[in-house]
Structure formats: structure tokens, C-alpha cells
Amino acid sequence: MPVVTSFRWLSEEEKYERFMERINAGEKIEADDWMPEDYRMTLIKLIAMHGISEIMGALPEKEWVPKAPSLRRKLGIMAKVQDEMGHGQLLLRVAEDLMAPLGKTREEIMQDLFKGDLKFHNVFHMPAPTWADAGLIGWLVDGAAIITQTNMLDASYGPYARALKRICAEEVFHAQHGESIILALAEGTKEQKEMLQDALNRWWEALLMFFGPGSAATTGTSKQDITIKYRIRTKTNEQLRQDFFTKYVPRILSIGLKLPDETMHFDESKGKWVYKQPDWNRFKEIIRNNGPKSKERLRLRELSYHNNAWVREALSGQSAAV
Amino acid sequence: MEGRDPTMKITKPEELQQHPEYKEVLVELLFQLADDDFILSYRGSEWLGLAPHIEEDIAFSSINQDTMGHAAMYYQLLEDIGIGKADDLAHQRPSSERRNAVLLEEVNGPGHYLSEPRYDWAFAVVRHYFYTQAKKVRIDSLKHSSYEPLAQVAVKINMELYYHLMHWRTWFIQLTNAQGEARERMKKAVAKVFEDFGGVLTLGVKGDRMVEFGLIESEKILKQRWVQAMKPVFAEVNLDLPSEFGMKRGNGRNGEHTADLDEAIMTLSEVYRLDPLATW
Ligand SMILES: [Fe+2]
Ligand SMILES: [Fe+2]
């Protein structure tokens, strides 16, 4: 008990020292614990972006929910997209708790999204013009998400680590859902196979970009140094991308698909995949909401937000009256 | 009129071979049930990502999944009888062969689900609530259907309906009892839904035969039960419950439909139609 009371009287430097001791000892930081400002701000940015990406990520697949080609697929993709919205909700709650001491709410998160201050993942700015895209998103985008999220399962911030644990468990089902769609196409007619290869070609660059630039030098900024320092994650962007290749390149080839990058190979001497770099300038443009579908999808979100303003108003009036 | 043994039960699809008339009427009823749930679930799925808040998006989507699951169970009953494959029945039939109520095929509002949707949440709440209550009344009756495979499906569906009904009732009361714009919008939606609600409550031209064969109770009884269930809710929100409901845009049970259904079928079967014989 005396230790707790005296904590308040420590200088900022001492508090910071204590905090870093806890981080380095692998302890979990909780919402009400003291934390340095840059830790809080990094988490808010990371988790709000993750949460909003789940929600924006529902949009490309949502396009295919009403169109799924069988009753079973309709049920499967409905469940999958619903899960993604659920992830979004879970994460926004974690972000809201972190924002509370700053006097900010979910309303600010949505406004930041509309203003373009809050980014969402590059993959969700891309078009999904065929049913094969819906399958590919489940298989490889969720597959990539599993890799990045697993990397943060032991994050020093307890509420985020716990949310990720639940999310990762569901992501495994998503990858299976996607794989099942993909396998049906891969074993299907000539047209179905072509549709699948086209989708892979279309998504390849976005998938490489998904893990982020290799270093800050590539795009000017990178959160990876600070997130590693605070033990929010362990591996670098490039390590994650390599893990993705190791897991998925053999699978892609085994179902009869061609890699969209002909130069790609595994360099035995370096123990690394060698591949053609995506266009990182294009990446910067995409996450600035200048991707092929950025405006359209933001418009959908914004329109539904305004269109339902009367509902929120009615609900808030009611709670005020109680 | 051919008399019927009131204790007659059909336990397996194969037994239907000896009862061709019964089978014909049963098929008609199953299409009504399947098509109602299928098209409303489709309309619900267009709302995905557009609901008033994220929590509602999740809850609504869960209800849509259940409802699509119910449609799939009814189409499976039809498949078991030998009418066709469930997926073909859901995706391939033209609007003239569909038996859903016209109210359920109506678009969610102006715009398209991918472009400039200005969907009407008041209409969504009223349509879903009134339909779900009608479905509850129907399912309670079907639990005693003479066609046992249908009675078994009704028992399963009933377990999920409690939550759906509670969900929509809560929205209905909350928004209708709110003041100002919300109440006005809700009143407009109620009037709009009643114009075609008769189409939900009817059993179509073969309704009398359905009753005779013990498949379901009469339209009149079902309607009375619906009114009984709604009376206290209407009192709570201080609205009048009409005694008659319209079928302004036709009787879907007889294959009368609007262009909204044709357009919906084109969308929901877009991928299926690329190759109906392929495995997807
Ligand atoms: Fe997710
Ligand atoms: Fe996922």
C-alpha cells in the first residue's frame, strides 16, 4: 500500500522509469495505470486505426453479401462480415477507454475518419470486382491480418492484448471461410480459375503493402520503432512480410495459381524471400484516401451516419429524459 | 369437399406420393414461408454497414443470418419433397413464381446498397417488427402442422424468434415514443407498411385447403392473434390499430410482384447465374 500512495509523489522521470521497468519485465499495463503520453497516443492511433479498419474492411466484402452464389455462402459471408463489425466495436471500446482522459469519444473517431485524419488499412481502399475477390480477402487479407495480430498478442497494453486474443480466434475461421471459397474456384471451371487468378493478381501489391514499409526511410514515417520499444509488437514489418510469404507462397502454388511476381524466389543463402517491391509512393497516396475506392467507401460511411442522425437524436433524447 | 381425418399426420416426404393434393398445397405453403424469409433477409443484408450504429449493425446482421437460415430450412424441405435443389429454388425462380408478400420485397429506401443508399430506418423497424410478429403467430401454428418435418422446423425457428421479436419491439417503442422527427417518421412508416400488410397475413388462394389438411390454422385466426399481440404495443405508443390491412400493390401469394423483386433477384443471383451448374 505505501508503494501505491507514494507513486503520486514521484517525478515524471521516475514514473517513466517505473513504467519502463514494468514494460521490460513483461507486465501488462491497464487502462487506469499511469502511462507516458507517447505510449497513450501511439496506442490510440494504432487501436483506433485497427478498429476503424475492421469496420471499413467490412465494406468490400459487404458488396458480395447479397450476391453470394448459394445459401451456404450467403450465410457464411454474412457471419464473416458480422464478425468484422464485432471486431471493430471491440477495438473502438478499447480506444475509447484510452481517449477518455483526453475528453474524447467515439464521435471524434468517426469525425477523424471523415476528415481523413484517421487512416484505415490500405487493403480496404481497393476494389473487389468479382466473387473471387470476396474469397481472396477472406483467405489472404485475413491471413495477413492473423500474422500481424499474432505479433501483438503479447502486447504490453493488456486490454488490447485481450481483444486481439478473441479476434485472432475468429480470424482463423475467416481464413477457413476464405479458403473454402477459393478452393471451390480453384477446383472449378476454366472461368472460375481465371477469375481467381485475376483476383490474386489484383490483390498482390496491396497484400505486400499490408505489412507496411520496411523502414521509415521508405515513406518518411514508421510507427514500428516506438511500438517495439514499448513492447506492443515484437517483429518488424519486413519480418512479418517474410512470414506471410513462407506461409502462403507454397499454398498459392499448390492450388495451381501463379505468383503475380515472376522475380520472386527464396534465397537460400540469405534465408529470405526476394521479391519486387510494391510502389511505396502509391501506398502513401492510398492511405491518404486517394486509393481507387477510398472516396466511395468513405461516402457510404458518411452518408449512413448523416442519414441516421435522427435515430441517434431520438435515442439520446430518450436517455436524457430518463 | 373431401373429408379429412383430423389426426392424420405425414411423417416423411415419401408418404406424400399417396397424397398428391396434400402435397400440392404443402408445396404452396412452403414456398410462401421460404420466399418470405429469403427476400426479407436479402433486404436486411443490404443494410449491412449502414445501420444507425455499429452495435445495431451487428445485431441486425445476426437476425438476417437467422432469417436466411430459416429460408434455407424451408427450401431444404422442398428439396426433400423433390421440387428442386434448395439453391436453385432460392436463386433461379423468376418473380412470377415467387410467393413472398409484396411488402417484403420493397426496397429499403432510395438509392442502391452500393451507391448513395438513403435507407429508411423507420421503415426497416416497422416492416421487420410487424413481419416478425406475424411470423411468430405462424410458427406457433406450424408447430402443430400435420406435416411433421415442417412442425419440427417450426420448433427450431421458434427458439430464435423470441430474440428477434424483442429486438424489433424495443426499437419500435423507443422510436415511436420519441418526440419530434422520430415519431413523425415512425407514423409515416406504419401507414406505409399497413398499405401492404394484408399481403403478409394472407395464405393465398390455396389457404382454405391448407387449413383443411391441418397444415396451418386459418388466415382469420392468425390475423386475430396478430392483432391481439399488437394491441398493447399500439396502446403503449398511442397509435390506432386499423381493423383492415391493404394489399395495395398486389398479392404476392398469387405471384403478383413489383419491379423491386425482379431487381432483387438479378442482384442476389448475379454470381449464381454466371454458371448455375458450377460448384461455388
Ligand atoms: Fe477482423
Ligand atoms: Fe477477419
Structure overview:
The complex is a heterodimer of chains A (322) and B (280). Chain A is an all-alpha fold. Chain A has one domain (17-316): Ferritin, core subunit, four-helix bundle (Ferritin). In chain A, 68% of the residues lie in helices and 2% in strands. Chain A has helices spanning 2-7, 12-24, 37-62, 71-99, 106-115, 131-150, 158-186, 190-210, 216-219, 224-229, 237-254, 280-290, 294-307, 309-321, and strands at 265-267, 272-274. Chain A has a two-stranded antiparallel ribbon. The longest helix of chain A has 29 residues, at 71-99. Chain B has 280 residues and is an all-alpha fold. Chain B is built from 10 helices and no strands. In chain B, α5 runs antiparallel to α6 (148-177) and α5 packs parallel to α7. Chains A and B meet through α3, α4, α7, α13 and α14 of A and α1, α2, α3, α6 and α7 of B. The structure holds fe (ii) ion (2 copies). One fe (ii) ion binds at residues 84, 142, 145, 171, 174 of chain A.
